[in-house]
């Protein structure tokens, strides 16, 4: 049956009709995570990587009152250059759809839309998590609750290093969300490969990853799986360096009264300035690496 709230691109619809693997991609990284024109260029390159590995990319956003599963070049350009695009989490989706607003989906919202569209694999940069100072602020990303409830496998470079990573992993453990290392035993820390914290499991081969995901869902254990895929070594920013820069950016955010959904975009932009653009290069590299792993997982899931 057709879904009046969703619109599939011709490419994605053709993949659905043929039963070919599809990989979901978020759009917040385009509208709020990177500057123009690197954002739209990266989006197109990530989609090309997924196609080259045999899967079909489906970048997700809300446009003109519909959830778009797969975007045209013109739609990507609109998200990348329009300064009035909402940042959408789970609670914001109905407003954007009902009011006909343009919205870029976060990890949580992309998972909601991907699951509704029957897409099992989602590639992003880094998941949200428990913010530093959360015991006082209660600032916890909706991404974590979505991972606990929505059955989508999420390939990421761990959680953003501006977060409280120990508490983020503790939250995921409490809610039964497995964190699986790819290529290493340690949880990745976005700009850096090693957070110093262990993953729950390590599974390197796509076929084994797919069997794990299928088994989890076959057991009736709902919710997602986090695949922690570290940034390539050549593009890593050492943990000590990025931590000092992050603390400076956090102090500046607090001094300027930045809060809520504005915190992460502010921090990413300020870190880019403080690293003289190196963090953007790292961000682009890790998303492309995640696209490779996510496409391979989607292909393997189609065989299990």
SSE map:
Elements: E1 6-8, H1 10-18, E2 22-25, H2 28-33, H3 38-52, E3 56-63, E4 66-69, H4 73-81, E5 86-88, H5 93-99, E6 103-105, H6 107-116, E7 121-123, H7 134-137, H8 142-149, E8 153-156, H9 165-174, E9 179-181, E10 201-202, H10 206-218, E11 225-228, H11 239-255, H12 263-274, H13 278-301
Helix pairs in contact: 3-4, 3-13, 6-8, 10-13, 11-12
Number of helices: 13
Strand content: 5-15%
Helix share bin: 40-55%
Low-confidence stretches: none
Count of DSSP strands: 11
State the shape.
globular
- Radius of gyration, in angstroms, nearest whole number: 18 Å
Report the major sheet: 11 strands, mixed
Q: Provide the structure class.
A: alpha/beta
Q: Give the averaged pLDDT, no decimals.
A: 95
SSE order: EHEHHEEHEHEHEHHEHEEHEHHH
Distance between the termini: 25 Å
Describe this structure in words.
The protein is an alpha/beta fold and 304 residues long. Helix content is 47%, strand content 13%. The protein is built from 13 helices and eleven strands. Strands 1, 2, 3, 4, 5, 6, 7, 8, 9, 10 and 11 form an eleven-stranded mixed β-sheet that branches. Helix 6 runs parallel beside helix 8. The longest helix has 24 residues. The radius of gyration is 18 Å and the shape is globular. The protein starts with 5 loop residues before the first strand and ends with a helix.
């Amino acid at each position: 049956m057709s879904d009046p709230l969703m619109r599939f691109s011709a490419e994605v619809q053709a993949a659905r009709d043929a039963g070919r693997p599809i990989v979901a991609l978020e759009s917040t990284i385009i509208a709020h995570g990177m500057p123009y024109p690197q954002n739209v260029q990266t989006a197109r390159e990530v989609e090309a990587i997924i196609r080259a590995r045999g899967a079909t990319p489906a970048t997700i956003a809300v446009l003109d009152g519909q959830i778009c599963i797969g975007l045209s070049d013109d739609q990507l350009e609109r998200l990348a250059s329009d300064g009035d695009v909402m940042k959408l989490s789970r609670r914001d989706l109905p407003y954007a759809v009902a009011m006909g607003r343009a919205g870029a989906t976060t990890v949580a919202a992309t998972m909601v839309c991907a699951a509704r569209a029957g897409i099992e694999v989602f590639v992003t940069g880094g998941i949200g998590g428990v913010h530093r100072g959360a015991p006082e602020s209660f600032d916890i990303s909706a991404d974590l609750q979505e991972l606990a409830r929505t059955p989508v496998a999420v390939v990421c470079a761990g959680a953003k290093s501006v977060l409280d990573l120990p508490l983020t992993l503790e939250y995921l453990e409490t809610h039964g969300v497995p964190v699986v290392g790819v290529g290493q035993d340690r949880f990745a820390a976005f700009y850096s490969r090693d957070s110093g914290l262990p993953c729950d499991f390590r599974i390197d081969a796509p076929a084994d990853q797919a069997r794990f995901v299928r088994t989890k869902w076959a057991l009736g254990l709902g919710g997602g799986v986090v695949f922690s895929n570290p940034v390539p070594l050549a593009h890593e920013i050492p943990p000590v360096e990025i931590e000092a820069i992050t603390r400076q950016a956090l102090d500046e955010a607090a001094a300027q009264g930045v809060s809520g959904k504005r915190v992460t975009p502010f921090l990413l932009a300020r870190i880019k300035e403080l690293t003289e653009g190196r963090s953007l290069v790292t961000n682009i590299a890790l998303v492309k690496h995640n696209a490779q792993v996510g496409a391979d997982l989607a292909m393997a899931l189609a065989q299990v």
